[in-house]
């Protein structure tokens, strides 16, 4: 049995606030609990709200690589970009919802580090051996809508590595590596929602995943670009190939 | 508060078994419950196990479009393909785990239809207004590992459509459309696991999402190919562009 509940009564978070103290006071944590903390409040506590009249410019500033772009029906531009964490998304993690006009909220500089600091602090403050996930909302290449995923993690296994396990029929589960951190982040979103004002969920019943503080973080979930079969969009890749091919074709024809 | 629990005591499922009867007998369902049913047992009950000495050939047979391929370190080939449901995955939904040697399990022919039949049957058998999700395990373009998603759904909203809602700061949540069906499937996987032999989870606490039987199914989650910025892999798209560009470059040089 898994139980997922929001922590009620957390105040609005501002720069410099001590999230460990706020959470430890509002929640009764037990060994094996996993906290799913919306990245937004981590960013706010870390002072990552910046002045930005133009969200599009802020996205450009946070982008390290443009993956794909496409014109939208209303004359805008959908941009899929890689941010400095290697995460590929539509807005580089730049959040203009739930922020005052003229400001945007950037992602934490080091979400795994933020998760570890929260995890260490909460374990000390409460005596409970907990895990911490920092969640954000991402779109997907081939599926519509968004799901919450883990962009930071500490004190838990982010993958339930079943490679080498046997199925019920006694055959090896060859390539199965469920990303439980992303699944837990999604479960947390189902109770936190986007409009409820409850930015932290506690997931109880997955103590088997909770462990040492030096377990790999959520950065290990990001697929390295050299293994990414979709590292640039279809149109962008075609265009690049076309340019290269055109030049080669001309050169060959002229040279022959 | 969300509760996610497996239904214990379900027997091994075979072709022709009445899943409604099996589930209704094993579970005490309440209004608002959402069942997450592993596609594997739906396939088995629908007789979708087929003889196949060669899983790779079975994948080829189920493929309607090759999206991307890449050689693996051990001399094999990773294939990302679109199956007849439009779902893009590494194995076209062909499952060779938990099946006898020499057989593979194909996806249900119409997972939304299967979900609807289950939903209708369970509502009749139990009197409880429940929703049904049929889940499968998919990889992701930019993130390692897999998560469970909804490939069939009935009797619930698959998206929590927040477009037009206001955030806490009173600003519109422009493009936010959480795919709650996928998030619920992921939550179900956290208790079902891949090796536990418990193929059905009950999610309690999301009655707000449960509704009419004619709500759109999981087919609406699949992004239409014409809106898919990653409809073919980077290398495949580049190569296609290169061939076209090369031919054009040659023709232009010759014609000038």
From TrEMBL, chains A, B:
Domain Coenzyme F420:L-glutamate ligase-like: 10-205
Organism in which the protein naturally occurs: Orlajensenia flava
Keywords: GTP-binding, Ligase, Magnesium, Manganese, Metal-binding, Nucleotide-binding, Potassium
Lineage of origin: Bacteria, Bacillati, Actinomycetota, Actinomycetes, Micrococcales
GO molecular function: coenzyme F420-0:L-glutamate ligase activity; GTP binding; metal ion binding
Protein name, per record: Coenzyme F420-0:L-glutamate ligase
Transmembrane spans: none
Keyword Manganese attached: yes
EC identifiers of the protein: 6.3.2.31
Top EC group: ligase
Keyword Manganese among record annotations: yes
